[in-house]
Design a protein that fits this description.
- By secondary structure, this protein is mostly helical.
- The protein has one domain.
- The chain is built from six helices and no strands.
Length: 107
């Protein structure tokens, strides 16, 4: 997986793929670093910062998914699949092939 191929913003499908990747990274940081810092070490600042960033990325991802559903005539099942992938750890990384295909077809 070449990071320069993922983080391209030239078209809406490429932006969706990029935001999915960054959202997935932020989710892992939240789950694997920030939350253990809060609950094991009592340091709440990590969850405040990483949680806020992740929340903003999640909302952006949701809106971009909705845009893709409308603009590229993706069905509700595709939207549910993308939404489910966004709440499962590593889900957006498994979704990357579908988003890459969407970017190649429409981007």
């Amino acid at each position: 997986m070449d990071i320069t191929q993922i983080l391209q913003f030239g078209s809406a499908p490429k932006r969706l793929r990029a935001i999915a990747f960054v959202e997935g990274i932020s989710y892992l940081l939240l789950l694997l670093i920030a939350m253990p810092m809060k609950y094991l070490l009592g340091i709440k600042l990590g969850v405040t910062i990483v949680g806020g960033i992740h929340g903003a990325l999640f909302v952006a991802f949701a809106f971009m998914t909705l845009h893709a559903m409308i603009a590229y005539k993706k069905g509700i099942l595709w939207g549910i699949k993308v939404g489910f992938a966004s709440i499962v750890p590593l889900g957006t990384f498994f979704l990357d092939k579908d988003l890459k295909d969407l970017a190649e077809k429409h981007g």
